[in-house]
UniProtKB/TrEMBL annotation:
Subcellular location: Nucleus
GO terms assigned for molecular function: RNA binding
PANTHER family, per database record: EXOSOME COMPLEX COMPONENT, EXOSOME COMPLEX COMPONENT RRP46
Taxonomic placement: Eukaryota, Viridiplantae, Streptophyta, Embryophyta, Tracheophyta
Organism whose genome encodes this protein: Pisum sativum (Garden pea)
Record-stated family: Belongs to the RNase PH family.
Annotated protein name in UniProt: Exosome non-catalytic core subunit rrp46, variant 2
Alphabetical GO biological process terms: nuclear mRNA surveillance; poly(A)-dependent snoRNA 3'-end processing; rRNA catabolic process; rRNA processing; U4 snRNA 3'-end processing
Length: 137
């Protein structure tokens, strides 16, 4: 359901109102971060099919380990061992989300949007470059 809602939010459905677009995701191997992988693959498939999109969706998973370090794109085993994990999905825009006030995680202050900025910038640039190469090929 999350995948469906994400794809519906990026597709421009008013251009061809009497059409249906089906996206089928087949999981061959799951080594962690399955939902972000499915979102990125489905978005690439929509671009390849020429479906009009508002923007690209770029997804990544990050988790917090027992020693409070943050891992981007963890493996399945790292996800299982993690204290917490989150799936982050961003539109491919130049805007970066930065909180107005400092965040607190327990008693430790968290840098202003550093994880959001890093994942948004790095993943957007990589995925956009990949999609441009495939479209121009």
């Amino acid at each position: 359901m999350i995948l469906k809602k994400t794809l519906e939010s990026i597709c421009i459905r008013t251009i061809y109102p009497n059409t249906t677009t089906s996206v089928i995701v087949q999981v061959v191997h799951d080594d962690g971060a399955l939902l972000p992988c499915a979102i990125n693959a489905a978005c690439a498939a929509l671009v390849d099919a020429g479906i009009p999109l508002r923007h690209l969706a770029v997804a990544i998973c990050c988790c917090v380990t027992d020693n409070n370090s943050i891992i981007l794109d963890p493996s399945k085993q790292e996800e299982k061992k993690a204290k917490a994990f989150a799936y982050l999905v961003f539109p491919n825009t130049t805007v970066t989300v930065v909180p107005e006030k400092s965040l607190q995680v327990g008693s430790d202050p968290m840098a202003h949007g550093i994880i959001t900025s890093v994942t948004h910038g790095a993943m957007s640039a990589i995925l956009l470059h990949f999609l441009k190469m495939k479209v121009n090929a």
